[in-house]
Known about the structure:
Elements: H1 2-6, H2 31-45, E1 50-55, H3 58-69, E2 74-80, H4 99-111, H5 113-124, H6 131-142, H7 146-158, H8 162-166, E3 172-177, H9 189-195, E4 199-204, H10 211-214, H11 216-228
Parallel strand pairs: 1-2, 2-3, 3-4
Helix pairs in contact: 2-3, 4-5, 4-7, 5-6
Amino acid sequence: MVGFVARGHRCLSFDRRGHGRSSDPGCGYDHDTLADDIAAVIDALGLRGLTVVAHSMAAMEVARYFSRHDGAGIDRVVLVGAITPFLLRTDDNPEGIDGAVLAAGSDLLMTDFPAWIAANTDPFFVAGTSDAMKQWGQRMMLGTSLLAAVQLAQANVATDFRADLARIYVPALVVHGDQDVSAPLAVTGARTAALIPDARLIVYEGAPHGLPLTHAERLAQDIAAFMAEEPGER
């Protein structure tokens, strides 16, 4: 955001309920409510012409916002390391991940949250990432409501966003690393881009899930170029 402010853009962010500086209301940890939270922020501030940048599970909230609120106020969408469209392997979703594998991760999250964070830290970054950066990421995660983390992990696995993604009618940029352990490219980013009517997929070779921290400069350049495109240039 600092770089985009320097480019003259107005930048806004808000913490998801139960995360960061937002309160933990003890309820509303489902994608319908989170999409409504996005609508509440956009409506309260009277925002229009937005380019929305969403990382990881935030792609789910944005997709649901389009199906529940018709994408009001949003002109462009950038999805980074998205975990859409549908994680769980089912009869009609054979590309998904086996439920036993997903359940094991959810069990560790519930019983030993710090251990779950520690297990996912190195794959989130790249070789050469400073210990200080890793520790910063861990501290942010540890500040998350455990109730929110558990309930959203369960909702993320069980919810199908294929129809929601098809409702994103604005230009979309999907950025994904081909070494993303949290959201394997073939299961998530590639399928997400294919489901959005006007989407382009950019794959970063050797990149993990934490692109906003590990590839910040390149990501900012790609987003800026996307925002500068005129209609019909895609």
